[in-house]
Amino acid sequence: MKEIHIAIAADSNYLIPVTVVLQSIFDNSRKSTISFYLLYMTGTMEQEKLEFLSAFTTKHRGKFIPLEINPDQLADFPETRHGKATLLRLCLPTVLPDLDKILYLDGDVIVNDDLTELYSTDITGYYLAAAKDSATAYDIGYQKAMGIEEEHCYFNAGVTLLNLKELRQIQLPEIISRFVETNYLLIGAPDQDALNYICQKGKTYYIPPRYNMNYNLEKDIANKIWGKQAIKEAKQNPAIIHYIGPIKPWSILSTHPQGKLWWAYLRRTPFAGFRPKDATLKNRLRKVYLSLTKPIEAQFSLKSKQQIGKLIPSALKKHIKKSLLKPQPKQ
């Protein structure tokens, strides 16, 4: 069987989501064995939780490799207002000098298909493989302001097949430092923006949206980025579902169309008894409102939303946005 190398960055607060990701991977690994690498900053992962993940991975006949990143290993990377932890995946070419390829996953995904085909993608000559993102479909000026060419299709870095061999050939820390220093006030996502800057000029291999499915997009935007057929296939058979956005499926406020699938995988883990920690009466009432409005909202195009938005007072829009984007409790 083929060996697939998968990395996730996390800390102790993300133990449950990471366990769900692993459960979903193991449940669908029919053709490959899994080597799982956990990236974490020194002091952010409790020993008992590392031991739990090791035992959980071994139970499913996988290999567990913890990758503790000392702050000194990030010394050449720049400080950002988001903190250095967001840059952990960029350490992979250095901390895994004998590995040529690895699949990086965010902790807010589930895997719903065997990953052998994705991992077997030939990325010779590319720095990575990733799915296109919506950021610049809304505003191309975002990437242009950071020196990313308009011709480059901005990608989402939550699911990336990294060509470690190729990335070791460039001065990654130095390039990122210059990029962050130049664009400090513009950067929205340090790791993602930096990778898009580095991987322009033909260094990105684009994978189908079914490998990084985002259900939050308006139909016209999704069609613009990927095309109707690719979106249809992705929705019918999503291989990796990415719960992009501030409201995650483990929140009582989630109305994600595939939220129940996350809970289905959770129930197969030792955390089957977990319940949302934000399940207050107020949030339950907000959930009713969201459950009624989200399906309706999903039917509108971006242009229609913009027209409707002009009719809503600015103060009310700010209040709604602030209410919905409140930080979620730690897991």
UniProtKB/TrEMBL annotation:
Q: SUPFAM superfamilies under this entry?
A: Nucleotide-diphospho-sugar transferases
Q: Which Pfam families match?
A: Glyco_transf_8 (PF01501)
Ligase keyword on record: no
Under the heading InterPro entries, the entry gives: Glyco_trans_8, Glycosyltrans_8_dom-fam, Nucleotide-diphossugar_trans
Q: Does the keyword Transmembrane helix apply?
A: no
Q: Which CDD domains match?
A: GT8_A4GalT_like (cd04194)
- Keyword terms: Glycosyltransferase, Metal-binding, Transferase
Instruction: Name the species this protein comes from.
Output: Jilunia laotingensis
Q: Which protein is depicted? A: Glycosyltransferase family 8 protein
Any GO molecular function: metal ion binding
